[in-house]
Design brief:
Elements: H1 14-23, H2 53-66, H3 70-84
Helix pairs in contact: 2-3
Length: 87
């Protein structure tokens, strides 16, 4: 997050932003917004793989300790292993 406050909520953290918007309505601030543009990658694909329950439980614990999702942890580990492979 940037060092300065967000423009509408004046929040200093993502948690404060969430708390602000939990109690405020964007319609009240619409005149203070500006148009933005962004691109969405609609070609991304997710493939699911079966994981044994005991492995899944261990993954969840490790990911939670690292503060990331189990999906992210799995992707990081698979990337590491694939980089080790010589094709």
């Amino acid at each position: 997050m940037r060092k300065n406050n967000t423009s509408l909520s004046r929040a200093k953290s993502y948690k404060e932003i969430g708390e602000f918007w939990d109690t405020h309505d964007l319609a009240d601030y619409w005149d203070r917004t500006k148009e933005v543009s962004f691109e969405v990658d609609i070609e991304s694909e997710i493939t699911y793989y079966a994981v044994e329950k005991s492995l899944s439980e261990r993954l969840q614990i490790i990911a939670q300790k690292r503060g990331i999702s189990a999906d992210t942890l799995i992707n990081l580990w698979v990337q590491e292993k694939l980089q080790e492979q010589k094709f």
